[in-house]
Amino acid sequence: MPELPEVETIARYLRDGKDGKPLVGQTIQSVEVFWEKSIAEPAVAQFRQQISGQSVREVARRAKFLILRLDFEYLLFHLRMSGDLRIEPEQSEDGQVRPVAVHDRLVFHLSQGERLVFNDPRKFGRAWLVRDTTPVFAGLGPEPLAEDFSAQDFYQRLHAHHRQLKPLLLDQKFIAGLGNIYTDEALHLARLHPNQISAGVRLHEAENLWQAIRSVLQEGIRRNGASIDWVYRGGDFQNSFRVYQRTGLPCPVCGTAIVRTVVGQRGTHYCPVCQPKPD
Predict the structure, then answer these.
(1) Last residue of some domain: 91, 106, 137?
(2) Is 266 a catalytic residue?
């Protein structure tokens, strides 16, 4: 958490300027660093020096990464478990400088009286300032919503591995952007057990799973993501969960109690009737 829909929601929030002016077009005048390990590269002093004076040209997403294209470089964020970004005025309504909040790790002072704040309670999130994104993104799998990612491609990728579906779908090298929530939801929608071996998935099952993945991600984006963790201010997709965190509650399809188990060291939710164990 956050996963692809939550990161896409934050990217849209930064582009639209929901709480202030849009980020695109603003210049980063300086940056304050309150937790040096939040910066993956370059060194902190170099990070401060290089980013000052660069303007934000575009806000985008790749997998679970946020991408800010600057004049000469890219500012990348991976939010990991608890990271978040917000835009806020430098001053409060009474004209005083707004104090830094608890867990604010990086504060970027902008040219239009605002600031971009990276908040991360668990301190796992990271920021990169790079000229070339290739080394950071190396090894990432395809975007599940990309037009050129077809069901046939997905089927072939499944059969190139002999792994349980749940941990394989969580592997960012296999497919980019999925996490625990949307994997459980997609597997239920496709009626596939999380322990099913990927190489044994038939073509029509792969097509169903491909469509299910795209469906739950698109719905998650439409609902501004899921807000199930106190560190994320997101949307309301949690109100339409099929199985995730619904242990003991009735399956929305058949009424059977949802089961929680552990697959690949990750908590996993499924319906034992709609998603029967493979032979």
Answers:
(1) 137
(2) yes
Active site includes 242?
A: no
Question: Which stretches of 11-70 are assigned E, i.e. beta strand?
Answer: 28-33, 39-41, 56-62, 65-70
Is 2 a residue of the active site? Answer: yes
Query: Does the reported pTM lie above 0.90?
Result: yes
Per-residue pLDDT of 212-246, as tens digits, reads 999 999 999 999 998 876 555 668 899 999 999 99
Looking at residue 155, which CATH number applies to its domain?
A: 1.10.8.50
Asked whether residue 142 is assigned to any structural domain, the reply reads no
Provide CB contacts within 8 A for 156, sequence distance 6+: none
- Taking alpha carbons only, the member of 215, 162, 151 closest to residue 5 is 215
Q: How many domains does the chain have?
A: 2
Q: Is 3 a catalytic residue?
A: yes
Q: Out of 61, 64, 223, 242, pick the active-site residue.
A: 64
Query: For 33-42, what is each residue's pLDDT tens digit?
Result: 999 999 999 9
Q: Which two tokens stand for residue 234?
A: 């997101």
